[in-house]
């Protein structure tokens, strides 16, 4: 009986004296993949329609601007480095790259419906805004709400590839395209700023799952369409688009910490 009691006491003593499990360290490099969605918030404003005829010749009847928004699935990848300082704070630097097919068409384009010399225009131009690849470089700062769970904010520089299209046919009457049919596309890699945040959870000391949200603003791109090629002012089909691009991106990701 005494042997049994002694064994039980020894087992209890070992259980009490077992070393505690070490908290995971967040310091180090990591790389991952992400899936989610991107909401493109594009505002298109049209000005300077047929400027050779002078200000006031064209009078818009449906306003000068409007949204050309879209939603698309996004896939991407990211990599970065974390530095854990103190027991609860983590700072880092991260870069990411993604692709989504945000592509929305408007017919007619905002700001192109109106009166030209007092007569309604016909054959109004249609067009689209397309957002494809994007990327960013961001600083991060996070707080460990638990040893394996990080809540963070991020901000930095972002890039977005944007394409603008406008097209119209030559039709009888007071047509928008006075001289020739047109179909033009212009592309630009826009640079802006981004800010957001999210939450990460470490599994097994190496795998990190996350939910992340970011807002990005790429300012306003001004582009003139249908510049006449040596024809007289009677065939001035020009107009200028002012497109403001913003995006909202929400993803979930899985990364490996090296």
TrEMBL record:
InterPro entries: Beta-barrel_OMP, OMP-like, OMP/PagP_B-barrel. GO terms for cellular component: cell outer membrane. Keywords: Cell outer membrane, Membrane, Signal. It is found in: Cell outer membrane. Its main location: membrane. Residues 9-258 form the Outer membrane protein beta-barrel domain. Coiled coil: none annotated. Pfam families: OMP_b-brl. Belongs to the Omp25/RopB family. This is Putative outer-membrane immunogenic protein. It comes from Bradyrhizobium oligotrophicum S58.
